[in-house]
Amino acid sequence: MLGEDGKVCEEETAKGGLDVEYIALLTVVFVIMFLAPFALSIIYSTVRKGSVLPISQEKRRDARYFGKAFSRLIEKNIGSVKDDTIMLSQMEEFIDGDKYYDYGKTVDKIIICKRHDFIAPKEVLIYNKEIYSAHSVDIRWPKTRLRAAYAKESMMLADRTSVERWVDARETLIAGDECELGMSATAGNRLSVGYGCHFRRLYAPQICIGQFGRDIGGFGEKTVLEETVRTNKDYTVLDGVVLKGDVCSHKGVRLCDNTVVTGNIFAETDIHIGKGAVVLGNVFTQGSVYVDDAARIGEQGSIVSMIAREKIFLGKSVCIYGYVSCEGGGLTTAKEGSVWENVS
Amino acid sequence: MVVDILKGYMIFLIILIMAYVVRHFIFALNRMYGRQRLYYNDIISDRMKSITVIIPMHNEENVAAYILDALLDCDYDREMLEIIPVNDNSTDGTRDILEAYHEKYDFIRPLHRQGGLRGKPAGLNDAMKLAKGEIILVFDADYRPARDLLKQLAVAFENPEVGAVMGRVIPYNADKNILTRLINIERSGGYQVDQQARYNLKTIPQYGGTVGGFRKDILLEEGGFDTRVLAEDTELTYRLYTKGWKVIYANSAECYEEAPETWSCRAKQIRRWSRGHNQVMFKYFFKTIFSGKMRFREKLDGIFLLGVYMVPFCMLLGQMASLALFFLGEMNILSGWWVLLFLAFYCAVGNFAPFFEIGTALFLDGIAGEIYLLPLLLFNFYFYMWNISRGFIDAVIDVITGRRVCWVKTVRFAKKKQLKGD
To answer: Residue B120 in contact with residue B208, Cβ under 8 Å?
Structure first.
């Protein structure tokens, strides 16, 4: 509208012009902001080709993987060594353990023994590289630290030996008291673990804590229940009961002393296995497992597993036939101790 | 009156979408920061159960040899293994391929179906009657299992409450085109975050009908799969839960599959999934609510899960309603709520998993660069909304008319593999 003096009209026109500019600017910003993500996506999809998520098609679960893979690598390349170097993942210098060598206190090269056992010299305290022996490995001096070791026959670790990665023996592995057993301690035949040892994974057809586990006879006069238990509550198997079946609880499971479960046990919280109790199947929990003295998991001639999301505590003379694994770390009881000291 | 209904519907939709967004936020946060439950793949045991692998096949000459060779490479004890490829009325060379394998390996026992009811559920029912294994594992014909996959899946049944197990599916043709790339990132969100979070939170991981397995006895006692339902996998999930069994998810049990490479093929697949899933929703909605065997969290998530293929249809109606309200000049009500709607809509972009869930999954999978593709999911969103809505309407008509559904096979894109020794 025109004013009498025409001023209002000018002001309105000026204001209207501003509005148009403002709206145009907003529109441009909106279009840019709206389209920018799509433009970015299209540019990215053109520049970078899509990738297929990798799945290892050849993957197989093998508890002794570390030892087997390492020994395969050594044995494959041992024929083509040159100037005491061997091709592993890269060219590595190694020490021929069959010859006399002045090791010093710290060893920074791989040790390979083809003809003789490897017997740790007294002066060496730290092995920063792997040890391979086509026969046995004997770490006989306490407080030795080693990265990893493989023995084609047997292996002995003295008290308070500390393993950084893994140890594997094709036959028997014996670890003394208060050892740190690294990521994995495995054996093809038998594994004996001393008191007060820390571990993450153990594997052998027979694992004994401290000494040989006892062998159980028949079920004798015990009360026998034939049922599979599935419950949302804590579940307890009372003293001396034989439960022929599996147990699955959404809370915890407790086996009292001298009980027998012939199947598997699955729980969401802790599992307590009493003195002399026997579980013939697998034990799995999202919590921790406490295994009291002389309990047995599995049976001779078969392989089972004990897996815990948190920790595993093993008492004296416990015997496990197969595989033990815990994300939170495991501990064997001290010589004078009890697994129950660890129950919070 | 009409305006009030439209406004009421919009409020309902806002609340519905917000509920789903919250659910998926919980899943994403759980995967990023929550306590992760272990799967049983660490169990090493020589007490494994006998298994039968069933592979439904209809004109699968292009892919049959791939999966059979992959299964033959698996490290499961052959004394405990049986493979039944179900040749369901194939008219191509599938039969010859299966017979060639049967001649070489006696534990591969093809079942040739001629006539009778067509489709995967009917084929599975016939194969289950012949199966010797205690556990049935199912693979689609285009899958390529890794060597330890059978063990990883079968070990779940050591737990006596597990009725079914589901592994993870990964497209091997993710690099083929933009569609397969988008499917790949959706799959990542769906499995790496959604399924694993549901396993962590002990709600309802879903049995997906392939790369998974179930106890044969449970199904046979119940008369097998319902042949009138297209989504026999979802139906089995709810059947198990309402009977007190559990389904668990094995994130490490990964298997390659072929993703659809054309939009038309994907549209048919999505429509079929939607139709089947919504059939299950109509069948199990009240059974889930009133089940005495399910815990509260399972029921709650179960209801959400039943509704996932109904929500896009609700959103389609919502968009129509908002247009109507706009032209009626009624958009000035509940202005605060509208902001929430837009926020929720934004968060819910991406249909099978919202963008933040997919982003989390891509980060966990180590392919964070693919996050740049997330905006393109907006196109998928509308594409899915349309096709899922069509599937929803199909399901409604199925329920009303009681008509029998017809199985439509997904087109394969792989080149035919030569048999070993050819």
So the answer is: no
Considering the domain boundaries, does residue B350 fall inside one? yes
The per-residue pLDDT for A19 is: 83
The DSSP letter of residue B137 is: E
| ipTM of the complex in this document | 0.86
Considering the domain architecture, whether residues B122 and B186 belong to the same structural domain is answered as yes
Whether residues B46 and B122 fall in one domain: yes
SS3 state at A239: coil
Q: Do B161 and A230 touch (CB under 8 A)?
A: yes
CB contact (8 A) between residue B174 and residue A304: no
Find out whether B380 and A38 touch, Cβ atoms under 8 Å. Answer: no
Q: Say whether both B330 and B388 belong to one domain.
A: yes
Which region among A44-58, A322-336, B166-180 has the lowest average model confidence (pLDDT)?
A44-58
Q: Tell me the residue range of the domain where B364 lies.
A: 2-33+304-401
In total, how many domains does chain B have? 2
Closest Cβ opposite residue A38 in set B41, B254, B375: B375
The verdict on residue B23 lying in a domain is: yes
Q: Do B240 and B311 belong together in one domain?
A: no
Q: Are strands A312-314 and A265-267 parallel, antiparallel or unpaired?
A: unpaired
Q: A54 vs chain B: nearest CA distance in angstroms?
A: 9
Question: Which residues from chain A sit within 8 angstroms of residue B43, using beta carbons?
Answer: 282, 284, 305, 307, 323
Residue A1 pLDDT: 44
**In terms of domains, do B18 and B52 share one?**
no
Domain regions of chain A by residue span: 65-188, 223-342
Write out pLDDT tens, residues B234-272.
Answer: 999 999 999 999 999 999 998 888 889 999 999 999 999
- Note whether A58 contacts B374, CB cutoff 8 Å: no
Which of A40, A55, A251 is the best substitution to test chain B (most B C-beta atoms within 10 A)? A55
Task: Tell whether B129 and B261 lie within a shared domain.
Answer: yes
Question: Any idea what the CATH number is for the domain that residue B96 is in?
Answer: 3.90.550.10
Q: Tell me how close the Cα of B86 comes to any Cα of chain A, in angstroms.
A: 24
**Using an 8 Å Cβ cutoff, are B103 and B109 in contact?**
no
Lowest mean pLDDT among A11-25, B30-44, B195-209: A11-25
A281:B184 CB<8 A: no
User: C-alpha angle with apex B172: B170 to B177, nearest 5 degrees?
Assistant: 110
Residues 193-252 of A with CB under 8 A from B: 203, 228-230, 232, 245-248, 250
CA separation for the pair B173, B177 (Å, rounded): 8
pLDDT at residue A245, rounded to an integer? 94
Q: Give the nearest chain A residue to B192 (CA atoms).
A: A53
Closest chain B residue to A326, measured at CA: B42
Cβ atoms of residues B238 and B278 within 8 Å: no
Q: Say if B296 falls within a structural domain.
A: no
> How many residues would you count in chain B?
422
* Cα R_g (chain B), whole angstroms: 22
What is the pLDDT, as a whole number, of residue B422? 44
Same domain, B21 and B142: no
Mean pLDDT of B164-169: 94
Q: Does B33 touch chain A (CB under 8 A)?
A: no
Question: Higher model confidence: residue B291 or residue B409?
Answer: B291
Residue A218 clears pLDDT 60, i.e. is over it: no
Chain B, 305 to 364: residues with Cβ < 8 Å from chain A are none
Shared-domain flag, residues B310 and B241: no
Average pLDDT, chain B: 88
The reply to whether B298 falls in a domain is: no
User: Taking 90 as the threshold, does the pLDDT of residue B71 lie above it?
Assistant: yes
Q: Does A323 touch chain B (CB under 8 A)?
A: yes
| Interaxial angle between packed helices B335-347 and B2-33, expressed in degrees from 0 to 180 and rounded to the nearest 10 | 40
